[in-house]
Amino acid sequence: MPKINGFEMLELIDNPPIVIFTTAFEEYAIKAFDAHAADYLLKPFSKERFDKAIQKITLQKSNLAQVVAATALQSNTPVNRIVIRDNGKIKIIPLPQVQYLEASDDYVKIYTLVGSFLKKQTMQYFEESLPQLEFIRIHRSYIVNAQLITRITPHEKENFMASLTNGATLPVSKAGYARLKQVLGI
Length: 186
Fold this sequence. Notes:
CATH class of the largest domain: Mainly Beta
Order of helices and strands: HEHEHEEEEEHEEEEEH
Distance between the termini: 44 Å
Radius of gyration: 20 Å
Largest sheet: 5 strands, antiparallel
Structural class: alpha+beta
Strand content: 25-35%
Strand order of the largest sheet: 7-6-5-9-8
């Protein structure tokens, strides 16, 4: 696929279908099954092998469809970019462009150099998927690119505020401050 891979395509689909991955690369098999693929066909494959994969889906279709719809996007594989849909187009945001993420109901608002974008995902997903030394959960509603923090100042009882290079000021919880101290070595 020219711009995004099959895993990123699955992430963009609201109700993912039953998927059989077909590829020439065996190293993605575990990731495919972590994404709840119905089968994984290594190219070149025979018609008999393809038929067997289809038969497997036919026999397990109702149960598998429920599992795939509920859990296909819950992979703990670290990401190096974020793929979103923006006005019907697919946009790829490299991680260095991400300044911070903010919880917004059932979505996460991703702030970048060029604006902000909504993605239907959880903060927990991003906390587990983004590189933990670069992106730190500083508050239940915020994950920040640690390289952009310019100052951490006390604010109210046991809370702090983090100032970023873009001028944003974000709340830091007690637990978030402990994580910041650990990652930043302060």
